[in-house]
């Protein structure tokens, strides 16, 4: 197994630890950050999320640079991203840090695009992620990290940057989903 695939698997293995950090009521205290209090467990979960998210960029970079792209990597990398983002968003709803309707739209888009990719794969067509999809992923990762940090460091300024980033990520999630289906509608139209 090559290094990019090991990094992708490490991202998947970090997800249960991330879930435990946000689900178990650890009493590690809180930090006063401007208008909010940041539980230490949320801070640790945010750091773990940032580390896990960064492996997405690192494994892709290494795979492309050293020609280590494999079918296993093509399967596991998007799966790892979807698992990590979905787990984080669902937990943010449970914690009252993100509205459920936004999370439902984001996760629904992921299911729809995955469905289209499965239909394409059945026809022997590989659908690559576009630039809008990469922007979508980046804005989601930033929004989730800021929400986990309870808007730190912007909480000192009283500007809800975390919430703004969540809505920016929703915009790019919907836009990239529409773009993906428009550009690849022939797959659905021509499928047997």
From TrEMBL:
Keyword set, alphabetical order: Cell membrane, Lipid biosynthesis, Lipid metabolism, Membrane, Phospholipid biosynthesis, Phospholipid metabolism, Transferase, Transmembrane, Transmembrane helix
Molecular function terms, GO-annotated: CDP-diacylglycerol-glycerol-3-phosphate 3-phosphatidyltransferase activity
Pathway connected to this protein: Phospholipid metabolism; phosphatidylglycerol biosynthesis; phosphatidylglycerol from CDP-diacylglycerol: step 1/2; Lipid metabolism
InterPro entries cross-referenced by the UniProt entry: CDP-alcohol_PTase-I, CDP-OH_P_trans, CDP-OH_PTrfase_TM_dom, CDP_ALCOHOL_P_TRANSF_CS, Phosphatidylglycerol_P_synth
Gene3D superfamilies with a match to the protein in the record: 1.20.120.1760
Transmembrane segments: 12-28, 40-62, 83-105, 164-182
Entry's localization field: Cell membrane
Keyword Membrane: yes
Membrane-topology annotation of the record: Multi-pass membrane protein
Class in the EC hierarchy, top level: transferase
Protein family (similarity comment): Belongs to the CDP-alcohol phosphatidyltransferase class-I family.
Protein name: CDP-diacylglycerol--glycerol-3-phosphate 3-phosphatidyltransferase
């Amino acid at each position: 197994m090559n290094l990019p695939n090991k990094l992708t698997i490490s991202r998947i293995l970090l997800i249960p630890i991330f879930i435990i950090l946000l689900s178990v009521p650890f009493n590690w205290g809180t930090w006063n950050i401007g208008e909010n209090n940041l539980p230490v467990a949320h801070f640790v979960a945010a750091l773990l999320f940032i580390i896990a998210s960064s492996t997405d960029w690192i494994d892709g970079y290494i795979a492309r640079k050293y020609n280590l792209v494999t079918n296993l990597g093509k399967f596991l990398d998007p799966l790892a991203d979807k698992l990590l983002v979905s787990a984080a968003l669902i937990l943010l709803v449970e914690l009252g840090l993100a509205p459920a309707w936004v999370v439902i739209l984001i996760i629904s888009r992921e299911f729809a695009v995955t469905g289209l990719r499965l239909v394409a794969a059945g026809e022997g067509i590989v659908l690559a992620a576009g630039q809008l999809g990469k922007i979508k992923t980046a804005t989601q990762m930033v929004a989730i990290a800021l929400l986990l940090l309870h808007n730190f460091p912007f909480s000192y300024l009283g500007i809800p940057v975390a919430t703004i980033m969540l809505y920016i990520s929703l915009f790019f999630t919907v836009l990239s989903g529409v773009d993906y289906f428009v550009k690849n509608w022939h797959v659905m139209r021509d499928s047997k």
